[in-house]
Amino acid sequence: MKEYPVQRAAALKPLPDPDMLVFGKTFTDHMFLMDYTAGQGWHDGRIVPYAPLALEPSAMVFHYAQEVFEGLKAYRSPDGGVQLFRPMENVRRINSSCERMCIPQLPEEDTLAAIEQLVRVEERWVPAKPGTSLYIRPFVIATTPSLGVHAAHDYIFCIITCPVGAYYKEGINPVRIYVENQDVRAVRGGTGYTKCGGNYAASIRAGERAEEQGYAQVLWLDGVHRRYIEEVGSMNVLFKIGGTVITPALTGSVLPGITRKSCIELLKSWGVPVEERLITAEELFDAAEAGRLEEAFGSGTAAVVSPIGEMGWGERHVTVNGGQIGALTRKLYDTLTGIQWGTVSDPFGWTLKL
Amino acid sequence: MKEYPVQRAAALKPLPDPDMLVFGKTFTDHMFLMDYTAGQGWHDGRIVPYAPLALEPSAMVFHYAQEVFEGLKAYRSPDGGVQLFRPMENVRRINSSCERMCIPQLPEEDTLAAIEQLVRVEERWVPAKPGTSLYIRPFVIATTPSLGVHAAHDYIFCIITCPVGAYYKEGINPVRIYVENQDVRAVRGGTGYTKCGGNYAASIRAGERAEEQGYAQVLWLDGVHRRYIEEVGSMNVLFKIGGTVITPALTGSVLPGITRKSCIELLKSWGVPVEERLITAEELFDAAEAGRLEEAFGSGTAAVVSPIGEMGWGERHVTVNGGQIGALTRKLYDTLTGIQWGTVSDPFGWTLKL
């Protein structure tokens, strides 16, 4: 496996209180950097002290958002070891995002090796308290100092890591969401299936408005018909209706979530019927009003699963499972987190021990 | 008018050969910076030596593309003075972009003052050779070092400038374009009407594929029906059909171009009928095949007008005006550039002399 040179930080930071960790605000001592230069390809992968990036004001990332990212976690297992969850899925997905954004493909094995080596270097930062983890953020930015609207000739691939607290500190409380009727996150032919910055920028306004109205997130509709459900906030979404779990099909405007995929694979292994298909807001609310919507939840790396307790769509308001987490949602959460933290066996070979 | 503090560069760069200027690659000696801090608002506007920006690797602009920009030019008039073209339109538009991206509004008069002062400081960089100008690029980036998907609390507003050569060095040659059937640039409910980075990132792939096939740009269709024409490349598009100029209506997914607006106002002042409405690729190609498409051109700050000589749509290929620039396109180009460079009178009050 590729081994990158390491320049150690002169002084290490004190570890934060694991009870006080806020997502994405505290970063570790080191980061991984690798440069891309046209004609030379990706080169000079290295682990260096965590420090600001100095970029020309004309760097393309500041103007044309040629940028993609990934998110995954390192988990402390009961034996004191550290493990990753399906990291090669993230590596493949960042390359899918890169393709759409005209960013050169990353070497997959070497990229996984970079993630592994950085986590080993930062091993003391992987917290042990239940529910905590080390969040890993690989990202690529276009650095060419040029204002022409073209693919850049120069990029930086960077990986930063930050310890994160338990997502559910006080038990899993289902959230309130509503159907967004104004803003659209993505459309077929666009970039919805990628983790490019522009998708997230476009989603901020709806999320802010939802919070102002006391909702945790929005349920996104498709950009073409404004009828079909796509995602919830920045998570995939799954519904249990009449015993079958239904999740929006990957039509190009939906992110192919790794937690989504893992939920589907687990459910199928349990004999639960799963349908990946188009589902309208109307079908969903009709099912809820007929008492057939049994469970609803978002899926993503941060929360694993996030149960939905209440949903609004214009004048229609429904409660899901009496506002409580459903049994199947709970089982998915317990199984996935058990596999991720190494407290239950992993029959799928999803974990990678470092 | 607001006057900002100026920190002069220790050494000034030599001026480039005006015949060798490439768009967006050579930057001047200074830039304007202003910071935004939550609770404090925009503060510390200043002109400083042009230098790299040092940002935390977790700065939101690198991950979630919370960023907007503008583009305008300073022109050297025959009397040796320098003038801007409708700069307040750019200031208002950046604030429209900011609103969509949840970026705090810029103070409009002070922002215009910043543009004016920076151009005065960089006055020696405004080239005098016909067709050359000083391109001005204001932009805002989110700098908060946090990975949560929310509006940032901290921003930088920056203005950089670069001398640019004549867009048409060897006379105006109409370009070949084709209708893009796969990728989509924007959709209603999205961000198409703004100059946010994500729009441009999403457009790069189609532009690259067009160039590979010998076309200058793509003609974008709407994301909903994939029938209605929206823009050409990163320009607005106008067609003269049967004596009337038709341009796509501003439905939310089309940029409200300042050159577009100026073309419409000029055409109306000349008594030319103008329609801002939906137009399908089918209507356009039918008109062309029936000999009714008289002229076609893109409009934007860089080229002013860019005549279209040939268009492809699947198996259909048409030539516009025998591949030559049309008379009305030519008149628009001559009038607009005349007003911009101060060689013809400006009855509209569009120019701002510094």
Automatic annotation (TrEMBL), chains A, B:
<dbReference type="InterPro" id="IPR043132">
    <property type="entry name" value="BCAT-like_C"/>
</dbReference>
<keyword id="KW-0808">Transferase</keyword>
<dbReference type="GO" id="GO:0009098">
    <property type="term" value="P:L-leucine biosynthetic process"/>
</dbReference>
<comment type="pathway">
    <text>Amino-acid biosynthesis; L-isoleucine biosynthesis; L-isoleucine from 2-oxobutanoate: step 4/4.</text>
</comment>
<keyword id="KW-0663">Pyridoxal phosphate</keyword>
<protein>
    <recommendedName>
        <fullName>branched-chain-amino-acid transaminase</fullName>
        <ecNumber>2.6.1.42</ecNumber>
    </recommendedName>
</protein>
<comment type="similarity">
    <text>Belongs to the class-IV pyridoxal-phosphate-dependent aminotransferase family.</text>
</comment>
<dbReference type="GO" id="GO:0009099">
    <property type="term" value="P:L-valine biosynthetic process"/>
</dbReference>
<dbReference type="InterPro" id="IPR001544">
    <property type="entry name" value="Aminotrans_IV"/>
</dbReference>
<dbReference type="InterPro" id="IPR005786">
    <property type="entry name" value="B_amino_transII"/>
</dbReference>
<keyword id="KW-0100">Branched-chain amino acid biosynthesis</keyword>
<dbReference type="Pfam" id="PF01063">
    <property type="entry name" value="Aminotran_4"/>
</dbReference>
<comment type="pathway">
    <text>Amino-acid biosynthesis; L-leucine biosynthesis; L-leucine from 3-methyl-2-oxobutanoate: step 4/4.</text>
</comment>
<dbReference type="GO" id="GO:0004084">
    <property type="term" value="F:branched-chain-amino-acid transaminase activity"/>
</dbReference>
<keyword id="KW-0028">Amino-acid biosynthesis</keyword>
<dbReference type="InterPro" id="IPR036038">
    <property type="entry name" value="Aminotransferase-like"/>
</dbReference>
<dbReference type="GO" id="GO:0009097">
    <property type="term" value="P:isoleucine biosynthetic process"/>
</dbReference>
<dbReference type="InterPro" id="IPR043131">
    <property type="entry name" value="BCAT-like_N"/>
</dbReference>
<keyword id="KW-0032">Aminotransferase</keyword>
<dbReference type="InterPro" id="IPR033939">
    <property type="entry name" value="BCAT_family"/>
</dbReference>
<feature type="modified residue" description="N6-(pyridoxal phosphate)lysine">
    <location>
        <position position="195"/>
    </location>
</feature>
